[in-house]
Design a protein that fits this description.
about 850 residues; alpha/beta; seven-stranded parallel sheet; 23 helices; globular; disordered N terminus; binds adenosine-5'-diphosphate; binds zinc ion
Length: about 850
């Protein structure tokens, strides 16, 4: 019988685990079977099976290289599947040892009759993934607990795998020697056919290299392709072809640079701070070994200018560079700024069409680009000889991919730099606590340089706090409306930011500022409007009744019946009182949307041109158009979500309003404070980018909240100091590591059972291996149902990543839990939703 042999569950990959294949077979060598003819390769499939399989490559399909895709029969039904070749030239006699990794294969080995299946085709002419990226893929598969095939699938863009925009073109050339042409032409009857041969001879098309494109030939002769076909077929029958047709794949060259605002290519003279920072970075680049520099510089301090200079230095050394930016910061302005400075540049981001993406990728792969600028996935750009990776706005949570493989672009960038002895520059005005901590504790690799001042030394904008207590039912406070009126009267522009998130409702008393908090944890409670299913009692698998929450009076008064407040950390839930438990005034739910803001503005400022921008409603071209109109003064007020907080430079913007600083503050997440500080300081950076005085309004119900107070004073250090105390006390990042296991299923009872079994299994492993891991849950996820799937979560905390890794390796190598539900593992999650 014929089987494919799963050989390793990918987390086992590391030099010591490879010895698995060096051991003798578990079952003894299969002496009855002759070594099969051909070559043995190992294949990883994109479909998500967490194992690799060995296959035979018949001589006629050899050679196959690592990184190439092949097509092969797979599974019981021999369905054809495409997979990546991940190892070649495996020795025949050690095959059986492979059976150690997976279930269900061992029995088939025992028959001694097993034969490897043979692949049916080689898909790619060249490997899509080189050795360096393959090593990176192994690391990602291992660290982020994701099947290797899925990682490889993510490394190569879909547009490349599909060959988007590629066309097969036919080329024609003569297959006879020049001296024979006259004789043969004499035998040809058709006039057009004769002309075709003449044309080819005149063009000297005697070789495949000098072949003429079919369409050009047809045009020159003035005929359809019928005479060409006749020529090919007729002379074949007589034993030799006179002309031959070859095929070439051509990719239409598609420019990917957006048209937009013109960027002047002016000479920049670095200021003292910039020069010092650059000297530092360049000396590290010249060490030709791995290192990380945190470029900690306020908005407008000239960081981008330094990236450009550092890249120029890298290119001078004959090396290449990647620049990563958050997707929404990839505006025309940024891309144009880089493309004005580098000729051999490629871009990779989601705003491109599939054929554009394919073109850009091939440009990089073929060595026609030295610089790649793009979003998260640019970290996988197939550049050879990488010397520098820049990650701008390194603190941005959008660098984390929220589908498998759930990798963090910044952390993968650091890893890639390490694997190829390159330097990595992380830039931010508000660095992540993780990176700050690395600078403290990993001094051998991490180094911090600072740019404390704005380039032009424009003063920071004035920050004004508005306590919304006095304007509780309004979206915009009077001081903000007045300021907006003045701004418009001066013909200046305003940006208003409202970060609406569906779950950002929180329960709050506008009068005494009491917020509902968890009894057990230092986090606020999140209001769940959805129908709520009780958590199973420990050890019980019985179906839980859905509690009907009637507005019954209790000792603390009447309760809202539309939902419950739940703690995301410990799962505790509370009824929500209608009245504030402290001052007996009515509680408020805060929930605003940018659409309502737009309407409000239109009513209050009927003469102003208003545009609303949010990442959902606006894609590529529209977004660029709005930005262009705004920069040309055709729009007075830009209102929208966080998309407006990033990297935009509009000198005429003198007013920035944060409609609700509280929406991100009350994310049910331990990073809420950090996000709030980042948001306020980033948005504030949009105001006063010229000699005109800028002003920032921060509307909040919590004017004394520390994150808001620190942001108001522009005191990042103070904020970090206080936040770290809290993180340390709670064993949270950057001190401990987190992993989040989310289980989902359409059937709630099944999900609860599976989640409970998962918890038990983890508890067993933790106990057996004495792992220092804190396990919480299962609890209902904050968003308890997505696309008809119920979701439950288990949260793991450990002091070192290696401990979590040990747990997941054991989990991966053991049978899956039954009942089977979908399990997603998120290592270093950026949020716990
Ligand atoms: P950041 O990336 O820190 O926000 P940028 O590099 O974008 O800062 O610089 C802000 C602005 O100042 C840009 O328009 C840039 O061209 C300009 N700039 C940067 N460095 C200098 C300099 N040394 N002299 C004059 N202008 C500069
Ligand atoms: Zn709690």
């Amino acid at each position: 019988m014929s089987v494919c042999v799963p050989v390793s569950v990918s987390p086992c990959y590391n030099p010591c685990n490879m010895s698995k294949y060096e051991q003798n077979s578990l079952f003894g060598e299969d002496k009855t079977d002759k070594a099969p003819a051909g070559h043995i390769i190992r294949v990883a499939f994109e479909s998500g099976v967490d194992a690799e399989f060995d296959y035979l490559v018949p001589d006629k399909l050899w050679p196959v290289a690592v990184g190439q895709r092949i097509e092969t029969p797979f599974g019981k039904n021999n369905k054809l599947e495409v997979g990546f070749c991940v190892a070649t030239q495996l020795p025949h006699q050690r095959l059986a040892a492979a059976g150690t990794a997976a279930q269900g294969v061992k029995a088939e080995h025992k028959t001694k009759k097993f034969k490897l299946k043979a692949i049916s085709a080689v898909v790619d002419k060249e490997p899509l993934v080189d050795a360096g990226l393959m090593e990176l893929a192994r690391w990602i598969s291992n660290y982020y607990v994701c099947p290797l095939g899925m990682v490889l699938g993510a490394i190569v863009p879909g547009a490349v795998k599909k060959g988007a925009g590629e066309k097969k073109q036919k080329y024609v050339y003569l297959a006879v020697a020049p001296e024979e042409i006259d004789k043969i032409t004499g035998q040809i009857k058709g006039e057009k056919q004769k002309q075709i041969v003449q044309q080819l001879r005149d063009a000297n098309a005697f070789e495949i290299e000098s072949a003429i494109e079919l369409n050009d030939l047809l045009e020159a002769v003035g005929c359809t392709d019928v005479p060409v076909k006749n020529l090919v077929e007729k002379f074949t029958r007589q034993g030799g072809q006179i002309i031959k047709i070859s095929q070439r794949t051509v990719l239409k060259s598609l420019p990917a640079m957006p048209e937009g605002m013109l960027i002047k290519r002016e000479k920049v003279v670095l200021n003292d701070d910039q020069r010092k920072a650059l000297t530092n970075i360049i000396s590290r680049i010249n060490e030709d070994r791995f290192g990380v520099t945190l470029l900690f510089g306020v908005t407008d301090s000239g960081k981008t200018e330094l990236y450009i200079k550092a890249i120029e230095e890298t290119i001078k050394k004959g090396k290449t560079a990647i620049v990563m930016l958050p997707e929404i910061a990839l505006t025309t302005q940024t891309i144009q700024r880089f493309s004005a400075r580098f000729d051999r540049i490629a871009v990779m981001h989601s705003g491109l069409t599939a054929p554009q993406r394919n073109t850009q990728w091939h440009k990089i792969k073929s060595g026609e680009a030295d610089v790649v600028i793009g979003a998260r996935s640019a970290v996988f750009a197939p550049l050879a000889n990488l010397g520098l990776i820049v990650v701008d706005e390194e603190h941005e949570p959008s660098y984390k991919q929220d589908t498998t493989p759930r990798y963090h672009g910044r952390d993968v960038a650091i890893k890639r730099a390490q694997l190829c002895n390159a330097h990595c520059v992380l830039g931010s005005a508000t660095p992540s606590l993780e990176t700050l901590q690395n600078c403290k504790t990993k001094r051998a690799f991490f180094n911090m340089v600072r740019l404390p001042k704005r380039v032009m030394d424009f003063p920071f904008p004035e920050m004004r706090l508005v306590d919304m207590k006095d304007f509780a039912s309004q979206l915009m406070s009077e001081p903000l409306i007045n300021q907006l009126t003045e701004t418009l009267a001066r013909n200046e522009q305003a940006i208003l930011l409202l970060n609406r998130r569906g779950y950002s409702n929180f329960i709050f008393c506008p009068s005494c500022k009491h917020i509902l908090r968890c009894r057990n944890c230092d986090v606020t409670l999140t209001f769940h409007k959805t129908e709520w299913h009780g958590l199973p009692a420990r050890g019980s698998t019985a179906k839980m009744a859905v509690p009907q929450i009637a507005p019954i009076p209790t000792i603390t008064g009447r309760h809202m019946h539309s939902g419950l407040a739940i703690c995301h950390y410990c799962g505790s839930q509370t009824l929500v009182p209608e009245k504030c438990p402290l001052c007996r005034k009515g509680l408020t739910m805060i929930g605003l949307g940018s659409q309502r803001l737009e309407e409000d503005l239109a009513r209050k400022f009927p003469n102003a041109k208003i545009a609303r921008v949010d990442s959902d409603s606006m894609k590529g071209a529209d977004y660029y158009r709005v930005l262009r109109d705004f920069s040309e003064g055709k729009i007075n007020i830009l209102a929208g979500t966080q998309i407006l907080a990033k990297g935009l430079h509009f000198p005429n913007v003198t007013l920035v309003g944060i409609i609700s600083a509280d929406t991100s503050l009350y994310l049910p997440d331990f990073r809420a404070n950090e996000r709030t500080f980042q948001l306020i300081s980033q948005v504030a950076g949009r105001a006063g980018r010229s000699a005109k005085k800028g002003i920032v309004f921060i509307q909040t119900f919590l004017p004394n909240q520390p994150a808001i107070q620190f942001a108001l004073k522009n005191d990042f250090e103070g904020f970090v100091k206080e936040e770290l105390i809290h993180r340390n006390a709670c064993n949270l990042p950057p001190f401990w590591r987190l992993a989040l296991i989310t289980l989902r299923d359409r059937t709630h009872e099944k999900l609860e059972l599976a989640a409970k079994l998962m918890r038990e299994k983890i508890d067993r492993i933790v106990a057996d291996q004495q792992l220092q891991i804190r396990v919480r849950g299962p609890i209902q996820a904050i968003i308890s149902r997505i696309q008809t799937f119920h979701r439950m979560q288990i949260i793991l905390q450990a002091p070192q990543p290696a401990i979590l890794h040990q747990l997941f390796t054991t989990l991966r190598n053991s049978p899956p839990i039954r009942p089977a539900v979908t399990v997603a593992i998120d290592i270093d999650p950026v949020d716990l939703l």
